[in-house]
Design a protein that fits this description.
- This is Diguanylate cyclase (GGDEF)-like protein.
- Strand 8, helix 10 and strand 9 form a beta-alpha-beta unit.
- The termini are far apart.
- The chain is of the alpha/beta class.
- An eight-stranded mixed β-barrel has the order 1-2-4-5-6-7-8-9.
- It binds ligand C2E and calcium ion (3 copies).
- The site of ligand C2E has 21 residues, from strand 2, helix 3 and strand 6.
Length: about 280
């Protein structure tokens, strides 16, 4: 009937209103969390396969929420990206990661730090300003800082992007392509942009051995452009064995360690003990 149609429309509008309201509350809560310093980093080791040494760590952000406990990035990064709050959050992450790298360097510990940079953060101005500022800190190990960007960062004006990447590399930082093979389909950027590292997406690793030819292709491609290949999401001994046999020398994954708080970071794994 007409009546129930109208009821339904009202219901939907209320429902949408409720979602809008919920969304605004979450946004405000993130903003509050940023102001209250509730965002922290966990670190996942990147392991050099032949000897089991941790060569670097990937910084992964978490929200230590006062009421809701530890919140994972998939629950707030997309909202931060949409609203632009990622510029502020990204700055916080960069600050913590870079300060940690400096602390390690000052302690004589040779440890790299990889930091995820979102598309909007890459386009913004805060990132370049922060990177420039850090290079002025005495003893700052800029060559130990790697920025992980996904292929969708590379959408847009290739000349501008190449220029920015070049500037970052000239400052002494490193660039990694994250989730390689899952996004942008035109691979020409691989030889056009300065890239130090290619991270093989975990979806390929988890599909071994069927995905073997694709991983071999990426390993060859990486070698040709002089980039280090890193396999992500290594969970099993079989994956580990396959990658080692194919000459992939850097790996990350639960098989070695989940991302952990700084104080639980193990910096070396006895490869011979991993069976
Ligand atoms: P990502 O950059 O691809 O990071 C890898 C994700 O895979 C992490 O999830 C990590 O915990 C998870 N992972 C690591 N090893 C394994 C494994 O063996 N198996 C499986 N199944 N997963 C594994 P996390 O920490 O939840 O982060 C999710 C995504 O959120 C990241 O994906 C990244 O895109 C984004 N992210 C995290 N921290 C930041 C940040 O500081 N800034 C930005 N812009 N994005 C971030
Ligand atoms: Ca990453
Ligand atoms: Ca990844
Ligand atoms: Ca698997």
């Amino acid at each position: 009937s007409k009546q129930s149609g109208r009821d339904q429309a009202t219901y939907f509008n209320e429902e949408i209103g409720a979602i809008d309201k919920e969304r605004r509350l979450i946004e405000a809560d993130i903003r509050r969390g940023i102001a209250q310093n509730e965002f922290i980093l966990h670190y996942q080791p990147r392991v050099h396969l032949p000897n089991g040494q941790t060569v670097s760590v990937e910084a992964l952000v978490r929200w230590e929420h006062p009421d809701r406990g530890l919140i994972m990035p998939d629950n707030f990064i997309p909202i931060c990206e949409e609203t632009g709050m990622i510029e502020d959050l990204g700055k916080i992450v960069l600050d913590i990661g870079c300060k940690q790298a400096l602390a390690w360097a000052n302690a004589g510990i040779d440890m790299g730090v990889s930091i995820n940079i979102s598309p909007r953060q890459f386009q913004g101005t805060q990132l370049m300003d922060a990177l420039k500022a850090f290079t002025k800190t005495p003893g700052f190990p800029r060559h130990k800082i790697e920025l992980e960007i996904t292929e969708n960062v590379l959408f847009g004006d290739h000349n501008k992007i190449a220029e920015k990447l070049q500037e970052i590399v000239e400052m002494g930082y490193r660039i990694a392509i994250d989730d390689f093979g899952t996004g942008y389909s035109n691979l020409s950027y691989i030889s056009r942009f300065p890239l130090n590292c290619i991270k093989i997406d975990k979806s390929f690793v988890s599909q071994l051995p069927e995905s073997g030819p694709i991983i071999q292709l990426i390993l060859t491609l990486a070698k040709q452009v002089g980039a280090t290949a890193v396999a992500e999401g290594v969970e099993t001994q079989a994956e580990y064995d396959w990658l080692l046999a194919e000459g992939c020398t850097q790996v990350q994954g639960y098989y070695f360690s989940k991302p952990v708080p700084l104080l639980r970071l193990q910096t070396s794994f006895d490869a011979s003990a991993i069976k």
